# Entry
Amino acid sequence: MLIKLHQLTNVPAAMPDESPTSWLSRAALHQGVGITEFLRFLGVRYFSGGDLDLEFVDWFGQHLASLPALAGLRAAVHMAGFARRAGSSSVLRPLYERAGTRTLPFSRFCAPCLHDATTLYFPVHWRFDEWRYCPAHDCLLEDACPNCSIPARLPVGLFSKQGAGGRHISLAHCRSCGASLMNLPPVTLRQAKQVGLLDEDVQILVAVQGLIGNLARTGHSCTDLDWATGVVGTHGTSRFSRIKMICVNEARRRLGVWRDHQQRFPFPVAMPMSLPSSTSE
Ligand SMILES: [Zn+2]
Ligand SMILES: [Zn+2]
# Structure
């Protein structure tokens, strides 16, 4: 696969902590092809529903250093490697949703991160269940598209993908309905605490994400699964389970800015529903 990449020009550098599927989506767009065609060129056998963010470790792993442009994917190697070894009983579990009879990987996302980005990409951290808030914006991550309620799934073939009105979509648009993912006002941790999130919950969140962040940066702890079970043990399984119950839209409902009957158009009235015009992008 790396040999194949060396044959290409115009391969985008991976952004810091970028998820493999985010990079694959951007790389395919840079080559002007769909995601399936790009993966086929690389020799990657991909079936819909497979988890490329984890399988990616098998393709690159320790060979990343031979392609400096992909150094940004190191966090993904560290995190995916750990998650695969630790298994589903530990922390750092990849996110999957049930869609009909299938189980599909998805990402949470931070709307302000997407809004502020000069290069749109998804950090690999957003793929994991225990990464619940954005340290840069102090807000809860979003679970799904605010318009159609379908979670963000990557990779996506951006070259041919079109949203509402025939406009091309970016990684900051829902691949299912084309709505923007970046204009939703976030729920800050302070707001979440007003409607039920406890100080201890936040402390656990911060501690767990600190450990995950360290693993992502350094790769350390990969050989020591005790840290993960240690986190659960120290804080108690039930306390830790509370973190998994956090629901950003439930927080919105309690804050009075999200109503069930608004499901189709759940933005507060002042929020724009339309996609950015192609001329302004
Ligand atoms: Zn953010
Ligand atoms: Zn959508």
